[in-house]
Amino acid sequence: MPRKPRASAAGVPEHIIQRGNNRQVTFTSEEDMKAYVTWLKEYAKKYEVNIHAWVLMTNHVHLLCTPMTATGISQMMQSLGRMYVMYFNKTYLRSGTLWEGRYRSCLVQEETYLLQVYRYIELNPVRAGMVADPADYTWSSYQCNALGKKSDLLSAHPLYLALGSSKVKRQESYLDLFKYHVEGKLLDDIRQATNKGLALGNEHFIADVEAVTGKRLVEGKRGRRVGWRKPKEGKS
Prior knowledge:
The protein has helices spanning 30-46, 72-91, 110-122, 124-127, 142-145, 158-161, 167-177, 184-196, 203-213; strands at 14-19, 49-56, 60-67, 104-108, 199-200.
């Protein structure tokens, strides 16, 4: 079966996840993570992609970003993946694939889901039991968005900027978002949309991005359509 074309649209945020092949380790040291971030910065700038949130885990990566062109994210991820695999194989004297095929992604409705995806990404180390507080994990955007740490990688989304009239107020409002975990239906919706390449949003948003991308972005029902009948012999 051919692979489902990936949807992307200029100006529409995307949640991206890229896993190690068979969930193998992709980062074994801080030097590995520094190398990955260096190329992420380079190619995000080259292909005009704004990075709003990220987390580098042991065997996968999450990104929340907005491309300025329809092909920006695909170009960024291809170049980034190629460079990092070359680095990783050379460093650890290995060969072959590192990533689990293509990255997975979903388009994200800003008003309803964007800040929820921020939270989902930056709470990954907490859900994984690596830290109790996202502030204790270095390789995510939480220290930037919540605590004001400077980063050349970060591009604040307009909805983040709308959280407050000053940097301090924005950080206070952002911290309030992390009083609760991302769980239940919201957690399932984010995971399903990303893993299946769907759109994360309401019906109007889905209709709009389907019209722009020309791709179906909701999960179709399995089985034969209602009213389907096998034609009898001699009839068409």
